[in-house]
Amino acid sequence: MEKGTNCEYCVNYSYDEDYECYTCEVNLDEDEMAHFITGNFRQCPYFKMGDEYRVVRKQM
Question: Which pLDDT value is given to residue 57?
Answer without folding.
Answer: 56
